[in-house]
Amino acid sequence: MIDRIRDIVSQHGRLTTDVAQLSDTSDLYQAGLTSHASVNLMLALEESFDVEFPERMLRRRTFETLANINEAISELTGSAA
Amino acid sequence: MPVDSPSLSSELVEKAHKIGAEIAAPHAAAVDRDARFPTEAFDALRKARMLGAFIPQAFGGMGCSIADLSGVCTALAQYCSATAMIYAMHQIQVACIVRHGQSAPHLRNYLTQLAENEWLIASATTELGVGGDVRTSLCTVERTGDRFALAKKAPVISYAESADDILVTARRAPDAPSSDQVIVLTHKRDMTLEPLSTWDTLGYRGTCSLDFTLTATGHVDQIVPQPYAEISSQTMLPTSHILWSSGWLGIATAAVNRARAYIRAEARKNPGKTPVASVRLAEVVATLHSMRATVNDAVQEYMRVADDVDAVSSMSFAIRMNNLKINCSQFIVDIVSQCMLICGMAGYKIDSQYTLGQHLRDAYGAALMINNDRILGNTSSMLLVSKDD
């Protein structure tokens, strides 16, 4: 699942660093993720995994790292990482 | 936690009215005409120790609440819009240090000195080449050992020349992306400020909001440790929108007070004959009450969630704070326009006790200080994913 997330972040995150160079716990905001891009990222994730982020997950923390995104999606799809 | 003291609240607002009426008001026309800093009002505010009002008592301040600051801004704005706006801007900077700087020894010490000396802090969050997007910086902090340097071309730094210190946003490091920002406390003594132009505007003339090239050095401990993104959403944005709106409410209140006085004077001249604009006055008072309720609701909401990091960082809270600014910037123009209609020529004339010219000019600045279209754009982006209100 995390590889699929990496792809989506790479396509929609508009990071200043190549996603391949980021670890699962690298700070995405320090890699260039802006508030605006994070909305596009959320939309792409919702579309790809067919989920809706509840309001409580629409926080900076949720999208801070690839691992955090993975955890959020896992919770919403009811599957393990 | 701010002190919950109704007596402190009313005492502060009373003081603000006294300083407003006795000191700010007599100089307000000159401050506006000459586009100069309201020195007299700030001397009085300092003497009353009101610049340090939001600093916790543990550091020597009054430990007041954001509700108190809102009341003070609304009061001051009824006498001098520039005084109220500068007071608001200063408190926004203080709030950032109080809420996000206490973990840093250097900044904690600064709070004590700030309360003692009643220093005035200005803000440089916008940048030439970026526009009004405060979450993007081109300039950067450059560290060498335990020293930093930064240089910023800022299109607006209100009352920079009268301030003692300036909080400046910049990229965290030379290799940091433009949205990866920090906010830095810079001191006048370690700074050069080169004005790039003049401040000659329709309204808010006394805020002296010229553009400058700012270069500063200092100790790395002056860099507020938390990412600016968090400081912005948890403190700077809500406090800004609340205190600006509170000032606009004060201007609107003053305009309505003039309209009320005008109608009463008309009624006394012709007892038994209802003045033509009576119904319009009734309408505008209703609108003023809506505006007041809007501001108070936002203040209560912020106080409710201020110490709940998840709630205060949520999209739904951000949308509410954006709408506070949008709504109040529209209210003030509507209310002042209606008052102009009520007072008629007496309001339109400048040499008149009912003059509303400055109220009108100031009112049109509200939608522009961060342009409403930019704010609506941010809200519309959030509404693509935000589901709750």
What descriptors fit this protein?
heterodimer; A: 81 residues; mainly alpha; Non-ribosomal Peptide Synthetase Peptidyl Carrier Protein, Chain A; 3 helices; 47% helix; B: 389 residues; alpha+beta; Butyryl-Coa Dehydrogenase, subunit A, domain 1; Butyryl-CoA Dehydrogenase, subunit A, domain 2; Butyryl-CoA Dehydrogenase, subunit A, domain 3; four-stranded antiparallel β-sheet; 53% helix
What's this, in brief?
Chain A is mainly α.
Beta-strand residue percentage of chain A: under 5%
Runs of chain A with pLDDT <50, length 5+?
none
Q: What summary fits the major beta sheet of chain B?
A: 4 strands, antiparallel
- Count the E strands of chain B: 7
The Cα radius of gyration of chain B reads: 21 Å
So, the CATH homologous superfamily of chain A?
ACP-like
Which overall shape of chain B is indicated by the principal axes computed on the Cα atoms?
globular
Task: Describe how the helices and strands are arranged.
The complex is a heterodimer of chains A (81) and B (389).
Chain A: H1 2-12, H2 35-49, H3 66-77
Helix pairs in contact in A: 1-2, 1-3
Chain B: H1 6-34, H2 39-47, H3 66-77, H4 81-100, H5 105-117, E1 121-124, E2 142-144, E3 147-154, E4 165-171, E5 181-187, E6 191-195, E7 212-219, H6 228-269, H7 278-305, H8 309-312, H9 315-343, H10 345-348, H11 357-363, H12 372-382
Parallel strand pairs in B: 1-4
Antiparallel strand pairs in B: 2-3, 3-7, 4-5, 6-7
Helix pairs in contact in B: 1-2, 1-3, 3-4, 3-6, 4-6, 6-7, 6-9, 7-9, 9-12
How does this model look, in words?
The complex is a heterodimer of chains A (81) and B (389). Chain A is 47% helix and 0% strand. With 81 residues, chain A is mainly α. The longest helix of chain A has 15 residues, at 35-49. Chain B has three domains: 6-119, Acyl-CoA dehydrogenase/oxidase, N-terminal domain (Butyryl-Coa Dehydrogenase, subunit A, domain 1, Orthogonal Bundle); 122-222, Butyryl-CoA Dehydrogenase, subunit A, domain 2, CATH 2.40.110.10; 228-382, Butyryl-CoA Dehydrogenase, subunit A, domain 3 (Up-down Bundle), CATH 1.20.140. Helix content of chain B is 53%, strand content 11%. Chain B has helices spanning 6-34, 39-47, 66-77, 81-100, 105-117, 228-269, 278-305, 309-312, 315-343, 345-348, 357-363, 372-382, and strands at 121-124, 142-144, 147-154, 165-171, 181-187, 191-195, 212-219. In chain B, the strands form two sheets. Chain B has a four-stranded antiparallel beta sheet, with no helix packed on it. In chain B, strands 1-4-5 form a three-stranded mixed beta sheet, covered by helices on one side. Chain B is globular and about 80 Å long. The two termini of chain B are 26 Å apart. The mean pLDDT of chain B is 96. Chain A binds chain B through residues 15-16, 29-36, 39, 42-43, 46, 52-56, 58-60, and chain B through 135-136, 172, 176-180, 227, 229-230, 233, 310, 313-316, 378, 381-382, 384-388.
